[in-house]
Each structure stands twice: as structure tokens, then as C-alpha cells.
């Protein structure tokens, strides 16, 4: 069976990582526009670097939960494409191979001048030089609001070739990920949502499983033969 799985903030919330709360425009006490947009970075790069240094430390201290481990096991039994909106590395540390990070990762650094990428140090600052071109244009390798997500062609291809699509812990509010279920369903792919509550795009799924990811994902994964 060919399976494509999309995971969102809900799967890492049980590992203690904060979720994005669009309702009040705040994210870990910061305005989204200040810390997760190109405009925010241009206005105050020091603030943005401090914010992501904090997030990097929080992610490093977190541990994979049962849902992450269940997906790693599922990849050993099926042809699984794992796509995540999350920027932590909990899937990798749980044992999942070849995770597609459509929004980038906290463990990566990017030169805004030349496009070079390298492993992010624990602390990053605006004046950090790019190891390739030497310019002080270092930023987190994170896809901010208003930027194009990574690996989209690979993701659309995986959806087209899947027998099953599952969205786990996603809000259904952020595009293009919110359109994956509709795209897959139009191509005859079975779609299932695993979430605490119905997402904004719940109508696009054939099935819904509600509850915490650490319980529902292992149960669902075991049921796939």
C-alpha cells in the first residue's frame, strides 16, 4: 500500500511543543507578523533570531511521542511518504527515514544572499557570516508566511500515486497543505483525518478519527495491513 501522511503541530504538541494559534495572532507570546514573515525579519532580525534560538532549544529538549514512533514503524511496513508542516526533528529522531519538511527545519540555516544551506548552530545572530559567501545574511531555513513551501512537486506526485492519504494533527487552515485532501480525493485516494477535533477542511476526508495523536495514530497504524 502506498501511503502519504501529512503531520502538523498537533502531533508534536504532546511532546511539549507549542502550536500555532491563529485565533489571537500570537505564537509563544510573539505576533506572527513579527517573527514568521520576511517583513518581520527585515524589520528586526535580532528578535527573529532570538525567537528561533528559543524554538530550537525547545525542540532539542523534546522527545518523540508514541505517534512519531508509530509512523516510523509504519514506514517499515508500507511504502510511506511522510510530509510534515512541523520544523522540529522529532520524526527523524523517532526513526522515520526521508521526512519531507515542507516548511523547513529548525536544524537548518540558510543564506538569504546566495542560497547556501548548512546545519544551524544552537544560537544564531544577524551578523553571522555565510560559510559559503561570507555575507552576513544568515536566516533560519524556515518557510515563513508569504513564502513558497519546499518540495511541492514531490508532494503532489506522492499524493497522485497514493492509495491512502492521512492528515494528522493539522488545522486545515494553512495552504497549500489544506488542499492536499481535496486534491487526493479527486484522484480517488482514500482520505482519513486524525485530529483532536474536526479541522477546517474536514469535509474533504472520507473518515475522521478523533482523539490525541499519541493514542489514535498507533491504533490506526496497527490497523493497516
TrEMBL record:
InterPro entries cross-referenced by the UniProt entry: DHS-like_NAD/FAD-binding_dom, NAD-dep_sirtuin_deacylases, Sirtuin, Sirtuin_cat_small_dom_sf, Sirtuin_class_III, Ssirtuin_cat_dom
Residues binding NAD(+): 8-27, 85-88, 169-171, 195-197, 213
EC number(s) recorded for this UniProt protein: 2.3.1.286
Positions of the Deacetylase sirtuin-type domain: 1-225
Binding site for substrate: 52, 55
Compartments, as annotated in UniProt: Cytoplasm
Reaction(s) catalysed by this chain's protein: N(6)-acetyl-L-lysyl-[protein] + NAD(+) + H2O = 2''-O-acetyl-ADP-D-ribose + nicotinamide + L-lysyl-[protein]; N(6)-succinyl-L-lysyl-[protein] + NAD(+) + H2O = 2''-O-succinyl-ADP-D-ribose + nicotinamide + L-lysyl-[protein]
Main subcellular localisation: cytoplasm
Chain positions recorded as Zn(2+) binding sites: 111, 114, 130, 133
Top class in the EC scheme: transferase
Cofactor stoichiometry and binding remark: Binds 1 zinc ion per subunit.
Gene Ontology terms: cellular component: cytoplasm
PROSITE patterns, A to Z: SIRTUIN
Zinc found in the keyword field: yes
Cofactor: Zn(2+)
Active site: 103 (proton acceptor)
Role according to the record: NAD-dependent lysine deacetylase and desuccinylase that specifically removes acetyl and succinyl groups on target proteins. Modulates the activities of several proteins which are inactive in their acylated form.
Domains as described in the record: 2 residues (Tyr-52 and Arg-55) present in a large hydrophobic pocket are probably involved in substrate specificity. They are important for desuccinylation activity, but dispensable for deacetylation activity.
Family, as annotated: Belongs to the sirtuin family. Class III subfamily.
The protein's name in its UniProt record: NAD-dependent protein deacylase
Native organism: Paracoccus sediminis
Higher taxonomy: Bacteria, Pseudomonadati, Pseudomonadota, Alphaproteobacteria, Rhodobacterales
Gene transcribed to yield this protein: cobB
